[in-house]
Amino acid sequence: xxxxxxxxxxxxxxxxxxxxxxxxxxxxxxxxxxxxxxxxxxxxxxxxxxxxxxxxxxxxxxxxx
Length: 65
Hints:
Layout: H1 5-14, E1 18-19, E2 26-30, E3 38-41, H2 50-64
C-alpha cells in the first residue's frame, strides 16, 4: 500500500527539511546539507508515487552524511 503525501512531508520535517513553499499543490523542501531541493506534489491525502518516495528517501540519506 503506498504511503500518503502527508507521511512523506512528516519524514522530511523530522529530518530537518524546511518547506519553502511552491505553486499550487507543489512544495519545495530544502536542507543545508542537501544540494537540490525536494519537490513534493499532490494533496496531503493523496497516495505518494514511487518516484516521490525514492526522492524523499535519497534526500534524507544525503542529509545525514
